Amino acid sequence: MRPLNIPDYDLLVVGETYVEFRTRGEIDIADRYDRDIGGSDIAVAATAAKLGSPVCLVSAIGRDPFHNFIRERIVAQGINVDHVITVHGYNGMYFCSDRHPEEREYLFHRPGTAAQNITPSLIYDDLIDNCKIVYASSELQSVSKAARHAVFKTLHYAHSNDIVVAYDPILRLQRWNLDDAKESLWGVLPLLDVILPSAPEETKALFGYERPLDVIGFLWDRNVSIVVVKAGANGCMVGYDGKVEEFKQPDTGDRFINNTLIGSAFNGGFLHAIARGDNPFDAARFANQVALRKGLNPGGIAALPAQSDLGKAGSQTDRASEPSRKPATHAT
């Protein structure tokens, strides 16, 4: 019997927390930075929470000068922190700039030590049983072997108990090498219901394919039911149930201000829509709108859209995002 004091969640995220320092100038000469929490996993959780999903986070925060700030900012996003522990060590941080909108990677990265305490002991059955979707990414897997085991335990239990398993194989080669990234990906691939890779560089490195259609076929052959290949400002392609649909970003006439976090915003929007009962194609259409809104707004976590920011786009199909159907075939 489940403990009565554990609420039901749409989404359970297992991930690392960061402190983000963002500037609108050049990082090496800027004299002003805006501080907030950051990290791709936190952005996924925050997006889903701001859109209205009950979200729980499993993470670890170091007892350094940023501890209270991080915890308070996570709570402010509407994320449950009952399973976020405080540990000895330091929190990771990164610096980024809005001056270069084409840059999606963090421009400077200092990993912390707190996330090394995200271990399998934090994961237990009742917590996973009480959510609709579990989500993790390779960002946490890159931290330590213990973190990899925590991700595997989470996804394996969810998979074994018919809970939707979602994963983003984020490729950050400044954190680990390609062989380790591939090994961690292939270790969880049989457990996945939803995978959300980015094309073309990431998919080429991990799967050997640049075209989203080829990536979908490759992953279908490995029994991943829902494949969502993201292409940044160019939208996405979704493969599900033998069908493939491409969703272009609507041409609003506005230029993307910054591409950082748009992939995480997309993921959070997509999983929020899946949890509320949308099919993967409608969920992708909705997630495109979420990513578009983030791309048009400067800033980090604070710039992630809420449901009220989306207007009609959050409740009905935008004609500009109508899909173009493609046959479910792929190159071999």
Question: Keywords, please?
Answer:
332 residues, alpha/beta, UDP-N-acetylmuramoyl-L-alanine:D-glutamate ligase, ten-stranded mixed β-sheet, four-stranded mixed β-sheet, 11 helices, 14 strands, disordered C terminus
Q: What does this molecule look like?
A:
By secondary structure, the chain is α/β, with parallel strands linked by helices. The protein has a single domain (9-326), classed as UDP-N-acetylmuramoyl-L-alanine:D-glutamate ligase. Helix content is 32%, strand content 23%. It is built from eleven helices and 14 strands. Strands 5-4-1-8-9-10-11-12-13-14 form a ten-stranded mixed β-sheet, with helices on both faces. The chain has a four-stranded mixed β-sheet with strand order 3-2-6-7. β11 and β12 (236-240) form a beta hairpin. α9 runs antiparallel to α10. The longest helix is centred in the middle third of the chain and has 16 residues, at 145-160. It is globular. The N and C termini lie far apart (48 Å). The model is unreliable at 313-332 (pLDDT under 50).
